[in-house]
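Please, does this match?
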Amino acid sequence: MIVSLWRVPVDELPPWPLPSGVRPLTVRRRATLVGFWVDYRPGGVLTYREFLIALVARHGHGLTATTVAAWVDDEQSLAGGRALWGIPKERAAITLRLNGRSARGELTAPGSPALRLTYRDMLRLPCRLPGRAHLVQQLSDGTRCRVPLRISGRPALGRGRVTTGPGGALPDDVLSALGRHRPPLSLALRDFRSVVGS
């Protein structure tokens, strides 16, 4: 898994439909987006690749995140993510290759230019770290859904960049917004294990 964090001006955000009670966390007119390039390998429920964008948000008096866009290369993941968790997954061709301390990825969705990832480790941490979080999503019937997440893995801090290639119109321009800004923080999580839901 390669994770990158962006600080994007609110004027560049698409008009995403957010779950009721959820509003973007903004500081100095910038919102925080977190992108996840993930290679789910054999041993889990499904084997597939994914690129997911989460918006850091406020919900009540606390912080949360909500998935605003996601692409996968597997039909079961697409259908399950939408039905179970309200995650707006779309179909795309995705590659993610790790080579020692570096990684490269590419996403190609219909009608969109390719999104390309380059990443390199700067500091590997000599431990395995656990983490917990949750998403707030909205199901197709309007019900608000809380999605708990648990994850652990071997982290490394690094430098990442995504760029967009020539191509067609972008859905809501979210990918080109990421391509215009360099993420101030990126990390890799190797040999990770995760559980979505209870």
About this structure: The longest strand covers residues 144-164. The radius of gyration is 16 Å. The first helix runs from residue 75 to 85.
